[in-house]
Each structure stands twice: as C-alpha cells, then as structure tokens.
Amino acid sequence: MQQMRSDLRADFAALSARLAEMVTKIQYDAVVRTEGPVAEFLAA
C-alpha cells in the first residue's frame, strides 16, 4: 500500500511538472506572437 501511494505521488509530481512545462511553452509562444519579430512582420 505504501509503495502504491509513493508511486502515485511520483506520477502526480511528473504530471505536474509536465503541465507546468506545457503552460510555460504556451505562454512563451503567446509572447513571441504578440511582442516578437513575428508580430512586427505580421503588422507590416
């Protein structure tokens, strides 16, 4: 039982880290689109 709980905790931690990575990438991509060179190119 303790092992299963430990495994679940590790799985949840990995999922949380992956989710944080995805959110960070989405935010970064949004900033690049709105403030980066691509946005300047599209506005021209």
Helicity level, as a percent range?
over 70%
Strand residues, percent: under 5%
Please state the average pLDDT score: 88
Report the biggest beta sheet as strand number plus sense, adding barrel if it closes. none
Provide a compact summary of the structure:
With 44 residues, this protein is mostly helical. Helices cover 93% and strands 0% of the residues.
Describe the structure.
The chain is mainly α. It has one domain (2-43). 93% of the residues lie in helices and 0% in strands. The protein has helices at 2-35, 37-43. The chain is rod-shaped.
Topology (elements, then pairings):
Elements: H1 2-35, H2 37-43
Helix pairs in contact: 1-2
Offer a few descriptive terms.
mainly alpha; 44 residues; 0% strand; rod-shaped
